[in-house]
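Hi again,

Forgot to attach this to my earlier email, sorry! This is the prediction with pyridoxine-5'-phosphate bound. I've pasted everything inline since the attachment limit keeps bouncing my files.
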Amino acid sequence: MGINLVFNVDRLQFHLNAGLLKQQSTVLLKLLNLQTSGVSIVFIDDRAMAEYNFTYRGKHGPTNVLSFQAEALPAELSGNELGDILISVETAGREAGQKGISLHQRITELIIHGILHLTGYDHENSTREALIMWEKEQLLFKQLIQQRRPTMPQLAINVDHVATIRQARGITEPDPVIAAGICELAGAKGIVVHLREDRRHIQDRDVQLLRQTVKTKLNLEMAAAKEIIDIALDLKPDMITLVPEKRKELTTEGGLDVIANEKKLKKTIAKMSRAGIPVSIFIDPDAAQIEASLEIGATFVELHTGRYCDADNEKQRDNEFRLIERSAELAFESGLRVNAGHGLDYRTTTRIAALPVIEELSIGHAVISRAVYVGLDQAVREMQDCITMAGL
Ligand code: PXP
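Structure tokens for the complex follow:
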């Protein structure tokens, strides 16, 4: 039982996030106390929808959603099957445009509408029933969004600069693997390392050991370069974050230009998907980059917080913050999961951590720098306090 998604349209052409749609539909069944039931959701085009609409309702032209209760089948065939929901992605897309919302949001609304029909709600019976159904739809949509929104972002520590100090001497200390363990014991919920092509800090040995020792979540930052892709496929980190990489830069300078690198990134994501590795893309807070990330099948975007952190004055910082806030909402509503990072320190983190849709903050330099004065354990705990403060 559960949710069965069928795509009779090109899923990538319409930027449909299958994983998220399935997860949301499963949550919907749970909210309705129907977790042992099954529903098939079939995504079709307008032409197919027009045929169904004529055959079963005698109406011409496509509609947005049709529900078929399994009750019509004999009990031994239907089991716990609630029925089928057909959704025209093309009609949903037009409606999303008219309402000024994302296609993902419109399809979510239609799934709610379809599931309610399968459970006996029918707006066509009377005005009163229409109102009851509409109110239930609003409630379920709200509950669904609340379930998806993380309560507080998790702290992931980037330990690259522990390796930077080690490489300055070319010896074995300090060791980023030991540092990662200390970060986890201090409460970090993830470890991030960037295996650069020039191996300026993190080495192959580090990622191999981290894969074996990290107990929380290992996020491998990397360029979409063949050698590193092969290492990642072999290593199987919990997720990867694709970043731009320039030999001469001191640190990652800007977000990835997804639009300009669409083909290469799409291929990389497809390879990672086949290996079961979720992909995040590090991008500037920009609507076009968000849309392109969705289009090539990313699961997460990591919004670049560098310009917000480096702002020269409060007005500029406010502007950069609003950009991140709007982008985070847009990405979330489009069906992407949202992380943020770069340049965050003990003054700039709390405000970003208060944004309701961000799942994880990736923070390195500020914590490793502070660790020089107060120790790594204390530095991580103080950063965790900055995040906790956002929820007070
Ligand atoms: N996120 C990404 C994608 C990065 O490249 C970096 C730097 O390695 C960070 C987050 C962490 O930035 P910082 O070291 O400034 O906290």
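The mean pLDDT is 93. The CA atoms of residues 282 and 302 lie 5 Å apart.

That should be everything now.

G.
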